[in-house]
Amino acid sequence: MLALLEHSVTQLGGTYAMEDTDSMAIVSTKKGGTIPCKGGMHSVKDGTEVVNALSWGQVDELVKKFEALNPYDRNVIPGSVLKIEDDNYDPRTGKQRQIHCLAISAKRYALFLRPNNGGPVLLRKGRNNKKDRWSRHGLGHLLNPADPEASDRNWTAAVWEMIVRKCCCLRTPKVKFAHLPAIGRTTVSSPFLMSSFESLNAGKPYSDQIKPFNFLLTAHVIPFGHPVGVDPEKFHLFTPYDSDPRKWLDKEWIDQHSKKRFRITTHGYCGSRQTARVKTYGDLVTEYEFHPEAKCADALGNPCDRQTIGLLQRRHIKIDLIKCIGKESNSLENVDEGMVHSDQNVYTEYADPRRSEWITKFGLL
Asked: Is the pTM of this model over 0.85?
């Protein structure tokens, strides 16, 4: 279904800002036309690269076109299998409005408004909107730096407002919590993690011990910030949960793998023998802003890097070898969040002797 929609959009000369398994953000304006975009498939007289924006009317026609694919009883569920989201309409007037999008990668994007061409305003939860329209992917594992006890992640709005304003070449105030250590919350969810706290629990009454499924704090070390002599891929710090950010830098932290205790700091560029240099919220926001979209290529077909901007395209791949892996690869989110430091650690490979490299590549038995 998504491939049909993509084909229909590109047939009209259009493109999209992002797409997911069940949705697409089509580049469109009220009357259509061209929009400046680096890497665009077209250019205007002065050489500026542009993309074609479909008109709102053309998008409406696409929605009607997909009515033929509605598999349900039309008396019960009429209309198209495609729906134009309520976000496109002003909740007060009901009129369609222009929405803007800033996309960093497939799951990192924010939708915003430009009222009367003024400063950007993030598209927030309104009368007809189901949720705030900015992504928390890659940030949602971190505690709210303003209120660690809060269950919401609305602090991410400040991050996106900063990024959007910067991209719009507007004055960008720094986030107030940039200097704080970036701390996440996790649980004692495995015997291996529980074993890290044996020395801490020793001699304490059961009521004061760390127990299975208790909350923990976790910190993230910068590149080259590990203590001297440790393996960066087998080093992750935890400490018992504490909701007071003022105490985080003064606590003892336990390495999950070696069970040794370390201190943390947010100053300097490397760790010492007993101290790890951990990331601040400012460090993580910078990483977040310049996250490369590894699945895409730039206009010339080169893999995206941290500085790639503009219209992206799919990367061409060549199958080298087939390997069977288990669904443990779902833990790749933990790699993205810094909980696991190598994607190889989350795969379980099921070797098939009939698919060895000697057989599949060289035809040798």
From this structure: no
Closest CA to 210 of 245, 241, 184: 241
Amino acid at 357: E
Summarised one tens digit per residue, pLDDT across range 180-218 is: 999 998 888 888 889 888 888 999 999 999 999 999 999
Q: Which residues pair with 254 in a beta bridge?
A: 238, 261
- Which stretches of 79-188 are DSSP H helices? 156-167
Q: What are 37's two structure tokens?
A: 């975009």
Beta-carbon-side half-sphere exposure of residue 350 (alpha carbons within 13 Å): 6
Written as six digits, the tokens of 38 are: 């680096």
109 beta partners: 103
Q: Is the dihedral of CA 242, 245, 247, 249 positive or negative?
A: positive
Torsional class of 229: left (φ above 0), alpha (ψ -120 to 50), beta (otherwise): left
Cα separation, 9 vs 4, whole angstroms = 9
Q: How many CA atoms does the CB half-sphere of 100 hold within 13 Å?
A: 16
Q: Where are the domains of the chain?
A: 2-133, 183-279, 321-365
